[in-house]
Structures are given as C-alpha cells and as structure tokens.
Design brief:
The complex is a heterodimer. Chain A is mainly α. Chain A has 13 helices and two strands, in the order H-E-E-H-H-H-H-H-H-H-H-H-H-H-H. Chain A is globular. Chain B is α+β, with helices and mostly antiparallel strands. Chain B is 23% helix and 34% strand. In chain B, helix 2 (92-98) runs parallel beside helix 4 (136-149) and helix 3 (107-121) packs across helix 4 (136-149). Classes of the chains: A mainly alpha, B alpha+beta.
Chain lengths: 297, 364
Amino acid sequence: MRRFFARNAPAYVFLLPWLIGFFLLALGPILASLYLSFTRYDMVSAPRWIGWGNYEYMFTRDRRFWKALEVTFSYVALAVPARLIMALGVAMLLDKGLRTIGVYRAIFYLPSLLGASIAIAILWRQLFAADGVVNQVLAMVGIQGASWITDPDTSLYTLVVLAMWQFGSPMLIFLAGLRGIPRDLYEAAEIDGTPRWRQFTRITLPLLAPVIFFNLVLQTIESFKTFSSAFIISNGTGAPADSLLFYTVYLFNEAFKFFRMGYASALAWFLLVIIAAFTAIAFFTSKYWVHYENERD
Amino acid sequence: MAGLTLRNVGKRYGALSIIQGLNLDIHDGEFLVLVGPSGCGKSTLLRMIAGLEDISEGTISIGGKVVNDLPASKRELSMVFQSYALYPHMSVRKNLAFGLQNFKVSRTEVESRVAEAARILQIEQLMDRKPRQLSGGQKQRVAIGRAIVREPQLFLFDEPLSNLDAELRVQMRAELASLYARLGTTMIYVTHDQVEAMTMASRIVVLRGGKIEQLGTPQELYTRPQNLFVAGFIGSPKINMLKARTTRDAGKTVVSVEGMPDFAIPELPAEDQALTLCVRPSSLRVGNGDVTGQGTIRLVEYLGSETLLHITLPSGQVLLACDNGRKPYRIGDPVTIGFDLSDLHYFDSRGQRIEIIQNESQAQ
C-alpha cells in the first residue's frame, strides 16, 4: 500500500484539485440532495425525514408535475429531431469543400454560443410577440400571425424553433463525421449510378450512425435540462397556461420560489432517472442501428 | 466491350495544368497500363475517363460515342479503387449487389450475377462477412467482384494492388491477368509499379508531367525506350547510364566513356558530341564483351537465381551488373566488366533515342 502511494504520489498531487472539487462541490451536494429528497426542508428549519413522502406526492397528487413532464417530453420529442435534422442538413451543405468553410462554420456556430444567453431568450420573446418581427413579416405577405408566445397552443413551438436555431454544436460534430466518410465510397456509388437520395440513406446515414447516436444522446440530455430560455420566455412561471412549464422551471420554482427544497431534490432525482433511462434505451437499441467500422466481432 | 479514344484531352486546376493535349487510342479488348511517377497525372486521367473529374479540354469517346458530358453511371464502366471502396456496413453479398440494384436488373438476375462473380473470384465462402472481417487480398477480390457484376464495357483499375503486401501482390497480379484472359474486356490499369505494368499490359503508356513519354508493348518499351526517362523508368534493376563523348575518325564515330576503352560505331545521324549510353544490368557481363573495362566490386546483393553487383569504375561511377549467382564475389575484388555493342542504347543531349544499325559497329 505504502509502495503504491509512493509510486503514484505525483499523479495524486496533480489530481488533487479535481478530487477536491469533485468531493466537495459535486459528490457532496449530490449525496446531500439524495438525502434531502426524503425530507421536508424549507432552508430555514432543519430537514425532517418523511421517507418516500415527496415521491408519493409527486406521482399521486401533484398535477403540475405531470403537466411539467408532458411539456418537457413534448419539447424533447420535437426539439431533438428538429435540431439534429437541421444540424445534419447544414453540415451536409458545408461538406462541399468550400474554401470559405471556416467562415461559414463560425457563422453557423454563433447562434449556439448566443442561444444559451439570457439576451437571446429576451430577443426571442420580442421576435414572437403579437407585434413582433415575425408577425410584421407575415403581415407583409398578408398573413395574420398569432400571438405566438402568449397562445398556449403555439408557445412551445417558439422554443422548438429556438432549439433548431441552436444547431451549431451538433452540426460541427456531424461535419467532422461526414468528413470521416471516405470520398471514394461516394465515387464508387456514383459510378454504380446510385441516386443521391439512396447514397444518403444507404451510405451516409449508416456510416454516420455512431455520430448520430452520440448527438442524439447528448441533445436528449441537453433538451431534458432546458431551462434558461423557457424560464425567461415564460417569465419564470411556465405561462401561458403552464404550456411552458418545463420540468426544470417547475423544479426551480419549487426550490427557490416556494423553498420546498426536499421536494425539489426529489424532482431532480427523478429527472436523473428519466435521463438515465433514455440514455440506457439509446445505448441498448444502438446495437441494432449503429455500425462501428473497427468493431470487434 | 469497347475501345476508347482520347483527343487533345487536357485537365487544368486554375492555372495549374495536370494533363496537356493528350491523344490516345485504346483498342477494344486491350489491357492498357498507365504508368508513371507520382504526380504524372495517371490517376487524374483515369478519373476523367471514369467521369469523376471534369475534362478541361478535348474529347473522350467510349465505343465511338463522346462521353464528355455523360455522368459516370452512364459510361458503362466499372472502377476498382486503391482503397477498395467497400461499404463497411454491408456484407460482401450486399456490396456486390448494391450497384446492380440501381439499374433495372431483376432480383434473380442480381443473385445469379453475384453468385457468378463470387464463383469466378472464389469468394463464395465470404459472402456473409463484413469487409472488416476480410484480409487485404479478400477485400481486393470483393472490389473486383463488384466491378465484374456490372458486366461493363470497360474496367478501370486505380492502383488496385498498392495496399497489398509483396507476396499477395504477385498472386493478385496473376489472378488479374487470368481474369482479363477470361473476360477479354477492355481494361485500363493505373500503377506506379513498372513490374505490374510489364507483367500485365498489352500496351503501356508511360506518363510524365501530364504528357505521354512513350506508348508501346512491354517489349518495345524495354528494348527500344524512346527517351532517357522511359529507359530509366522501365526495367528493374534500373538501367545503367554512362556519359559519353564522340569524335569523328575516318568515317566512323568514336565513342569515349571515362574508365572504358574507346570504341567505334557507324556515323551518328546527328552532329551531337555529348551522348548518354545506356546498358541494362542484365547485359553488363562480368569478364567479357565487345567492350571491356576494369572496376571494383562495391556491393554484392545475392538474390538466389542471380547476383546483383554494384561495380565502381575508375571514374567513380557505379554500374549495376547481374550475374548468374553461381560465383562467389567479395566486396573490394577487382573485376572486368563488358558489354556487347548491340545491347547499348544511345540517347542525344536532349535525352532522345538515337537509332544505330548495330551490326556495322565494331570495337577498336
């Protein structure tokens, strides 16, 4: 044991900052939140153990919890495919060997840098407001636009459009993936008279499957965690009519507006279970549709 | 099957000219090899024929039909790539069938053509494997099989054996040659390996800098290279080149090579005093010849059936000579080397071949 430490001491010295950060700032709060999820805790008085009480309330009596789940699942179901399709489409356009590709890459990535910012969420609210730019443009072609953000039927779609617009990071990963597909596969297909659409479905998509899988998992996790844009656009309430009551917005309100920290912790742990379950499903199904070139048999 | 005609074909990338004014007639059923050093334009030319590269100028005709504006798929040709270009996610069977499914070929026809190609190439037992489960040689067979099933007018090969090890290359070379004998389809084959070119070609095109240096049968290129580049490129081990000067003496031309005795040849057609004489290592003999000289053995490479000797002349120039491998040689041994005048190739100061009627020449 002593020899083990003597031999590995330099490594542990270098790892120390990370280890301190992990145990104090990550693992501590994680375990604390797990404990708090079984308590009633208002941040003023001491936590009181209530067993499965928070979880029982969540599943049996809290109708807003189910609404938050519905909103979040709807958003994930729409935003993830929309963003991935957008990202893949733009990546394929950029994968044409343009000389100025670096400039375009930067321009297309920009929304992803800005997208997470509060300012963009505020701008989005202005764009889709009843008298916003979107409706002004529609009016020019004689279309009477809806009040996109204040109408519960359309508000979620404005956030899906925002998610689509933030396609930069999966686009860059797709672009790298596309670059990794050997050109001569397409040339062989070209000589064999393979139409473009068949080349896309039979060559590009299967060979890009590992990248699609990676982006799918990452974007699903990201989308389940969407917070700031929903919070800003709904003024922190999930309005109108709870149509923007994202799970994270609900969790935040429970924790920091109503100080039900124990319940909020239970919500957070259930979100972790949801994300883990979706990731596990993705990994489980991947063996049927993801092909790795250097896979061992 | 179809012949191919190239007329004034050129390829430019901006200001950079890769191929200039190239004219070539490839006969129906011929195995033509395009050979040349890296960057000579041979692969570009093949890709232009395939329709994978645009043509900057000139015309390409296949079977008498101009195909300049015809997409690759309409040119009725198949191509085998250096990297094999097999679809990694498809089984061998699917790889073979994929191209056929784009054309209106019935399912039973696809299956029978795939089975026939597999039988010809002896890959029947590999049909359900993925490319990653195949060796380099097996992958190459599948790539060739994919070309065969199309039953094209023209086969194009882009350095198909480059990724194989030496032993497999020799084996695949023989298999390709027998495949050609069996199918009789026009084949155009690109390589930088002159041994591949010599062993397989009906005719060889030697390219340099986007221009044809010489076109001919392997024997023509070996026995009558038209310039110094072809003389140096074709043949292994590489041909010996000797700088020589000529003087006139009583109606004869006397040739002087440093380190060797002077010898006379019939009058040269051109008034050129600086020549390059070339002699193949197999024609440079130890001990005798029309012209002999002294040298020292610098290196001995024993190859079993023959011994390759590196011999230094008194001038410092190193010549290569092939001996039959029976006699032991040691580094540093003095040696007499000689060649027959009939084995010499003469090139003028511009590197172009000079024809000489050999039987009138004689040694002094």
